[in-house]
């Protein structure tokens, strides 16, 4: 029998089983600045905060009496493990679940919460592939039933029940669906069911830039392992597409889009701002794909109804800082420029006054390392037109600059400073009110023509008050002392300014001989 037909048939049967474990999830509109209507399937509101319960329960409900005598075995980076644990408890089975040592604690704790005494977790390796290999060794050695996270037609049929709920919602027909792909189980099952009822629907598979195993498989004509695998979106970090999922996805996925970690982080931000839901990175990939497609193609203007899946909310809280730092702010996105200026008093202010200082500066890194030239790094949030206009202004003013978004100094905040070049330095701890232009206003008030910048460390944290560490140098000690004597501890645009002691300065740049 044709694999798509078999999958449709099994999806019908899965309807009769999966609702022993959970209720249908909502389909909600989400307001976005894109053409047409967009609906999101809220799988983050399911029993395990992800869709994986559907496939795991459907597969485990069909175990034979002999298979039920031994623990089932599974490998998972998190969400599938929770689905297996939930099914084991409801069906009164035992489960041994292999998970990478890198699995977030929140997901491991959730496995025990859903499965209790029915589950045992074995941590193996640093990635899903290591856990999978260990699980398969156990399966082959002891004859256990293996519950695959995606490469199983019965698992795919269970996942497809979420598409059945979409069809039954009455919100369709849908013109396009953006489906995230890890191993391809959800995407294949959902796409197959949607195409059954909406034959003209366009299915877009969304993968991470360094996770695109299904795209690689389709291009190669068979599942092909990726050499490098990014695990930022840990729920979709699969090195090689499954055999079964490949056969389905190559027939039902119309095209592929790859998204960056920054684009995924921005989609998480939008989910929070528009729906007050906090998705894990893999859960937000569909929205990231939709936004990228809309920005790149006018064809999306013809889509009356678009569909995305919020497929998981098992987010490691410690990852929030990285996500927030990677996401855009408002309508703009983060960009970093390294700009050359003369190493002399007033040159930094002149640069800021080209228009740079009135943009939303979210990162400012500089340390003096050369007596003649300075290369400060500025991180900004701006739209594409604002960025183009800034580059044009910089060129017209004769500045040399380069994009450094992925440089070591930006990623690791490496700010070198040669203490031997500093003359009578003064370092200030500054709190100023976060608004576009506030930092420039402060600098214009108190340092114009009085000093030369030798150090700057500022990064936007999301607070209404920004905090910066600023180093200034003077020609004489008398000038430095006069500057400090006249410096107000607070003023227009800033609420606090404190000079650092010599000991504190030495801790930052080292002691000058």
In short:
By secondary structure, the protein is of the alpha/beta class. The protein has 20 helices and 19 strands.
Over the alpha carbons, how many angstroms does the gyration radius reach? 28 Å
Q: Fraction of residues in helices?
A: 25-40%
State the low-pLDDT regions, or none: none
Structural class: alpha/beta
Which architecture of the largest domain per CATH? 3-Layer(aba) Sandwich
Within the largest sheet, what's the order of strands?
A: 15-10-14-12-17-18-16-19
The quaternary structure here is single chain
Query: In DSSP terms, counting alpha (H) and pi (I) runs of 4 or more, how many helices?
Result: 20
Return the CATH class of the largest domain. Alpha Beta
CATH topology value of the largest domain: Rossmann fold
Largest sheet: 8 strands, antiparallel
Ends distance:
82 Å
What spatial form do the alpha-carbon principal axes imply? elongated
Total beta strand runs: 19
Q: How many domains, in number, for the residues?
A: 3
Average pLDDT figure: 91
Family: Belongs to the serine/threonine dehydratase family.
Cofactor: pyridoxal 5'-phosphate
Keywords: Amino-acid biosynthesis, Branched-chain amino acid biosynthesis, Isoleucine biosynthesis, Lyase, Pyridoxal phosphate
GO biological process, one term: L-threonine catabolic process
